[in-house]
Amino acid sequence: MIYVFQCIWVYLAAIICFGKKFDKIQMKRRQEYFLLITFVVFALIMGMRDMTVGIDTKTYAQHYAELANANWKEVLSGNSFQSTMEIGWNVISKLCTYILPSYLFFQFVYAIVYCGLSAHFILKTKDVFVTTILFLGIGLYTGAFNVQRQFLAIILLANGYLFFKEKKLRLSIIYFICAILIHKSAFIFLIVLLVYQLRSNNTLIKLIPVVGVLLALNYSKLIALASQILPQYHSYYSNERGTPQSASGVWIIWIIIIIIAVYTIYSNKIEDQDFKVECIFSIAYVLCNVVGLYFNYFERVGWYFMPLIPMMFYNFGGYVDKLCPICIKKYFPVPIKLVYYIGLTVSFTLYYLLSCFTGSGLQYSFFW
Q1: Any bridge partners for residue 366, and if so which?
Q2: What would the pLDDT profile of 285-303 be if each residue is shown by its tens digit?
């Protein structure tokens, strides 16, 4: 029921903040107000959950309790605990234990930081309401219930990427270093920066998806390479599934992502190279998830590209009026762009609720 309330709250906040027309200065403030009142609620929901909500929450709670009783030598080495975690996570957790040894306190701190970074990321997009719905639907919110370290690294990288695009290199570097200290595998995101730098080469942009498909077909070789580069994750490399896992209904979203991304990359009607970079890594996200059906944990590589998917979906809406044939347009009394965004928000709201009610470890209860 809490997830239904959450969605209703987002829609009510949108009506309150955007129910009238405003000039650009007022609209910017209204966007900030919207994100404030929605993400404060998001943080409360995330922070007040019981330790039974989220598959890995109990593991993090146990690790936090171990850190509370550990000395700094053990904290910095990270090898004296049942679950090995990166130095950045250990340091943050240990500092929090000095304030309150209760894991619930740390959970609140995490929720505030994660939701604050998420709101900052969304504020830099063109439509905060639509992007917030996409943020929920894609899984960037509930994912942080289950895999806290990696999702914190993901949202740090997402912000760092936007700073990189704005040529704020110092801030970008700080965010990337923080992400890697939280989760070592965050270095994977460097490939996004490389492709972004080469985005003006249209031939390369069109070639990369083909290379991505070939790599996905030969994923076993990638696993062997990863085992050499990141030996500390050795337990992940032998988790090949005996029977492929089912994708259930999410394959519909994957197909839509592939169709939009492929069309955008190879269409001469769309010249925005930044948009094409988002599409490339939206395809990479899908490919990693498909490989993950056959090999455990490979989908986690694709999670680093998740923040680019809401950007891709939203930006495509700016082209639908131009791309839609006149014979279809004449049947709509409103712009196709509006129809697209309404369909996008409604469908991803429903998908978010469905994933919450059927997802592992997401049955909600408060800590009390």
Answers
A1: 49
A2: 999 888 888 777 778 889 9
